[in-house]
Automatic annotation (TrEMBL):
Entry protein name: Galactose mutarotase
Reactions catalysed: alpha-D-galactose = beta-D-galactose
PANTHER family attached to this UniProt entry: ALDOSE-1-EPIMERASE, GALACTOSE MUTAROTASE
Lineage, uppermost ranks: Eukaryota, Metazoa, Ecdysozoa, Arthropoda, Hexapoda
Keyword match Isomerase: yes
GO molecular function, one term: carbohydrate binding
Length: 366
């Protein structure tokens, strides 16, 4: 079927349906009902060549094994400290599922990303995707509640504008701009905001001018790469506005992000396997000198981190992609002066966001 100039077709993707949206320029978005996920986006470079720029998988096994790829995240995206939330003076325990074993992360063990959504091509929706002829993907999220509850729903998608399998080498050529004067200061150890809103001036979070995500830049970021919430400039928290722009100069492809939410989680896929890191196992020590920290061993087995294999069997490694994820501030339910994330009965939660793709030609300025 078609909606306007957009051709929509349906096929199977394992045990779930997949929808392909094709605009008049043959640019394509593919969606699957599992996690209401973006499985593929094919957009042109300055020569008109279409390339898939979304990291993901060719089958359901990949999405079942590696959560969050391209999916809707909720009911509360990001972290809630200690798996506890305070609401109306009552403390509620939540599932603990982050990598540290301490916090509630991205909606918990059973969340919006790892369930099969009922999908149909109609106007009534909880999550609505709209693909346009000018290569804009609009995502409109709505929610209601029967009881007061925290809500922070978003779409998490890893991109590489050189192509989904182009890897860290091409990611480091991307140039990023973020519309943010401040960031939520984060504890390096637990990855949670302290509650302090800190200026980006003279820090690695100063991204208001186009900044290349090269190796030197990422090395300076605590944790070895970005995974931080920036506070998007706006006259009020909840107005729809420009969040960020990122360019891959060689192809000319760029992506702009817009949203009506106050924060943007900037990520450089630090969680993917690191090809430059080695794991040392089967360690047997003869002696250990605490003075000079020298270790004598009879056996050291060195093994590189294993890759995640994505579409086309291509390996996905650390810094092989980026995510620009609009959201409320992390742990907002427990930090009183952060924008409220509580949805009350009779109210409607609204998150409108847009991924706007384009091409910059060589004689144009970014």
């Amino acid at each position: 079927m078609s909606c306007g100039n957009i051709l929509i077709t349906e096929d199977g993707f394992g045990f779930v349906p997949r929808y392909t949206l094709t605009n008049k320029h043959k640019a394509i978005v593919r969606l699957i009902s599992w996690g209401a996920s973006i499985q593929s986006i094919k957009i042109p470079n300055r020569d008109g060549k279409l390339v898939d720029v979304v990291l993901g998988f060719d089958d359901m096994e990949g999405y079942l094994k590696d959560r969050y790829m391209g999916s809707i995240i909720g009911r509360v995206a990001n972290r809630i400290s200690d798996g506890l939330m305070s609401l109306n003076n009552v403390i509620y325990p939540l599932s603990i599922n982050d990598e540290t074993g301490k916090d509630h992360f991205n909606g918990g063990v059973v969340a919006f990303d790892n369930v099969n959504w009922q999908s149909q091509i109609v106007n009534n929706r909880v999550v609505k995707y709209t693909w346009t002829d000018d290569n804009q993907l609009h995502i409109n999220i709505r929610a209601t509640a029967t009881k007061s509850t925290p809500v922070n729903v978003t779409s998490y998608c890893l991109f590489n504008l050189a192509g989904h399998g182009a890897g860290p080498k091409e990611l480091r050529k991307h140039v990023l701009t973020v519309n943010a004067d401040n960031w939520t200061f984060t504890d390096v150890q637990n990855k949670l905001p302290t509650g302090v809103i800190s200026p980006v001036d003279c820090t690695v979070y100063e991204l208001r001018l186009p900044t290349q995500l090269n190796r030197r830049r990422l090395f300076k970021v605590p944790g070895g790469g970005y995974n931080h919430n920036l506070c998007i400039n706006s006259p009020n928290y909840w107005c729809y506005r420009f969040h960020a722009r990122i360019l891959h100069p060689a192809s000319g492809r760029f992506l702009e992000v817009y949203s009506n939410h106050p924060g943007l989680q900037v990520s450089t896929a630090n969680e993917l396997p690191d090809p430059e890191r080695v794991n040392i196992c089967n360690l047997q020590a003869d002696s250990f000198l605490t003075v000079n920290m020298k270790l004598k061993t009879t056996e050291i087995e060195i093994r590189k981190s294993e890759a995640i294999y994505g579409k086309g069997g291509l390996p996905y490694y650390r810094h092989g992609g980026f995510a620009l994820t609009p959201q409320n501030y992390p742990n907002a339910v427990n930090i009183e002066h952060f924008p409220s994330c509580v949805l009350h009965p009779g109210k409607v939660y609204i998150h409108d966001m847009t991924y706007k793709f384009g091409v910059l030609f060589e004689d144009e300025n970014f």
